[in-house]
Write a sequence for this structure.
């Protein structure tokens, strides 16, 4: 789907989780996307919207999403501008340019980065339970904040 997503519009409604990954159809990337798809309901219950982000083209991400039946939006960061701005890049390796590291960033409804994990290299899977726990913690904070209004 070729449409622009403005993340600030999304986090105004709740938490946004950005799942930066290196490439569509990569083995560890597949495990990660399938695990987060299986956890989608739990994240929705915590009012957390997930987005996978890679420097693949929209077309490639569309095929990837369809093939694996990924349950959330995948965003194209062609040129890895966002990943570079988050310092979530593997180093350039000779003739090969660096690529995004598998990393996770959670932004609260005020636009504040509340969780960031950038591993030493892209072969590490994320701590799924810790990320969900943070989403639930933020949901509880929102609930208490909204009750106080």
């Amino acid at each position: 789907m070729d449409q622009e997503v403005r993340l600030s519009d999304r986090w105004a409604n709740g938490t946004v989780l950005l799942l930066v990954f290196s490439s569509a159809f990569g083995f560890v990337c597949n495990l990660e996307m399938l695990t987060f798809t299986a956890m989608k309901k739990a994240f929705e219950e915590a009012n957390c919207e997930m987005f996978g982000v890679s420097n693949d083209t929209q077309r490639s991400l569309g095929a990837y999403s369809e093939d694996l039946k990924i349950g959330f939006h995948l965003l194209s960061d062609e040129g890895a501008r966002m990943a570079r701005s988050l310092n979530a890049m593997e180093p350039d390796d000779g003739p090969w340019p660096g690529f995004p590291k598998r990393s996770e960033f959670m932004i609260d409804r005020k636009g504040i980065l509340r969780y960031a994990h950038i591993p030493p290299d892209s072969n590490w899977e994320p701590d799924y339970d810790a990320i969900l726990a943070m989403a639930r913690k933020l949901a509880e904070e929102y609930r208490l904040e909204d009750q106080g209004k």
